Amino acid sequence: MKPTDTTDPRRGPGTALAALAAAQFTVMLATSIVNVALPQIRDGVGLSDSGTTWVVNAYGLAFGALLLVGGRAADLLGRRLVLLAGLAVFGISSLAAGLATSSTVLIAARAVQGLGAAAIAPAALALVMDLFPPGPARGRALGVWGAVSGAGGAAGVLLGGVLTQAWGWQWIFYVVAIGTFAVLAAVAASVPRAKATGRGRFDVIGTATVTLALTALVWGLTSARRSGWTDTAVLGAFAATAVLLTAFVLVERRHPNPLLPPRLFRTGRVSAGNLLMALLGSVWIALFFFLPLYQQQVLGLSPLVTGLGQLPLAFANMLGSTLAPRISRRIGSTATVTGALLAEAAGLLWLSRISVDGSYLADVLGPTVLVGLGLSVAFVQLTALSVEGVPQQDAGLAGGLVNTTRQVGGAIGLAVLATLAGTTTAHAAGHQPHLESLTAGYRTAFAVSAAVLVTAAALALLLTRRTEATSPRPAAQPAAATDRPA
Questions:
Q1: Would you say the pTM of this structure is higher than 0.90?
Q2: Where do the TM regions start and end (predicted)?
Q3: Which of 1, 165, 176, 435 could join 304 in a cystine, given CB atoms 3.0 to 4.6 angstroms apart?
Q4: 159, 292 in Cβ contact below 8 A?
């Protein structure tokens, strides 16, 4: 029997897009909202300095390791169902984090938040693809998607500062919980039900091996920032990653329904998009890590003022995401991606000139606006590239894959850049004042980030132009699939 669709048929795809974009915004918000509040969280639940990093790492570890699983579950079980379940888990765990009185409960709640986010992100992106067929409408929808994704990271820093200073660190989690339940209600009311489009069963062994491999990789990278790259546990994690990834490849070759089917990469643009997204992600997360540190530790700004300082970056991000589809239609996707990456690189190179005697207006405002414009345009185009031509039954998995590459790329980038910054600071500490040595470390992180993006721009010029000529034009998809018997 055909299930009854309880959504209001008078509501168009724009209403559904708003709800789905709000879900993505919530995930990105939770990624950065704790950064400014970490000192207060440390004191509130009795964490050590090294333990404090796990308030961030527990979320990122679960999120990055389980995205592929979340994407595949969305394809097999139904994207709307998985999205609603993910939002429920995310909201409950956010509330638990705010109520936590011990470090164990807080870190566990953050890990469960990451689990919910790993279901939300790929399912929501796949639903956007279902609602908007290839063409200008999808381009505009992905522009909205990019705007809320980048704005979520900047808004997290802003809200984290405001809430922590006004009411205490617990409220950063309470507000996320309240917002998540509101988004859940909006999704239930506005997003039409659709049948599961994937075929086959879960690739249990492949899922287990790749999830454990990603867990070991992200854990090793985050631990390397604290313990060093030659630490025995860190080297063991990297060795386990290599073994598990090898096992994953062998399993996938033999499995009739692999977790990453070859058809996902047939256009060639999926591979290019994911590689470039990993490089973009490697500097994206690091930006929101180092910039607030410079503002607070060197410039001496309060958490509230630091948060407010993210507003121009957020506005630039929204403007760039809105303009990205128009720019792409005018000059082509290859030129758009390349130009956006170079613009962001220029902004980061500008940030590499920060000084101890600087100010927000002189050292931060101009480059962050440039970074926001480049980052947003690049994100929108690379997201579109990473899902272009993907079979409809794999849309959730494609969404999980592009989020995985961004998240894992961010973990790798942050670990490497934090190590370089720390090494520079340690070398400078012997002959420079403390703030001078800190600033030298931040300058190094921004300069290397700029170099990474210049490399990414060169690769974009090569890879996207090569695949553009060989990629088949995707067939139009229905605006939304309705429930019917399989």
A1: no
A2: 12-34, 54-74, 81-101, 107-129, 141-163, 169-190, 202-221, 233-251, 272-294, 300-319, 331-352, 364-387, 408-429, 441-463
A3: 165
A4: no
